[in-house]
Amino acid sequence: ASATTTTSSKSIPKRLILDEIKDSLEVNFGDFGRAAVAMRLQVKYYNEATSLLILRSSRDHFRQVWASVTFVTHIARSEVRLRVVHVSGTIRRCQRAAMRFNRGWLEQTAGKILRESQIELEDVVLEVDEEDEVGREDSGDRDDDFGIAMQL
Fold first, then answer.
1. Which of 11, 41, 47 is CA-nearest to residue 151?
2. Residue 119 — left, alpha, or beta (φ > 0 → left; ψ -120 to 50 → alpha)?
């Protein structure tokens, strides 16, 4: 899944974002809900410029993560709005959706400059964690993983 967040201009560390989502899991699904989901919940990618975040969760609990993300309104004393922009059964497809999202954001905010300088968008848009490159040949995902891309 993908989500977007509207924040003030200050940067929010991805660790704080993950902690807030876990706290929201606890508030909305109790201690058991947090424990069941938190073990597999990871931030796989975070771009501070576009505020795009990709989460990895277990397939069995992606709906709880999605619901909890919806209820996050503050991170590090900043008001935020998390918006899921894509949900996928693999991290790889989530990354592709993130690339499309980031490409659109780059074109929208710096279209003329990008055309003049001819920056390769794929080189700027998304860096893949080394961990994602290890695993299944096609996708680098486990069968029970689920990707959630979101914008802060």
1. 47
2. beta
DSSP 143: T
HSE (side-chain half, CA atoms, 13 Å) at 104: 7
- Tell me the pLDDT tens digit for each residue of 28-72: 999 999 999 988 999 998 888 778 889 999 999 999 999 999 999
CA quadruple 131, 136, 140, 143: dihedral sign: negative
| Cα within 13 Å of Cα(27), Cβ side | 13
Which ranges in 39-120 belong to alpha helices (H)? Answer: 62-70, 91-117
Distance CA 147, CA 90 (A): 6
Rounded Cα distance, 141 and 10, in Å: 32
Rounded Cα distance between 19 and 17, Å, is 5
Tell me the pLDDT tens digit for each residue of 60-103: 999 999 999 999 999 988 898 888 988 998 888 988 888 888 88
150 pLDDT above the threshold of 80? no
Q: Are 2 and 126 in contact (CB under 8 A)?
A: no
Of the CA atoms within 13 Å of residue 85, those in its CB half-sphere come to 27
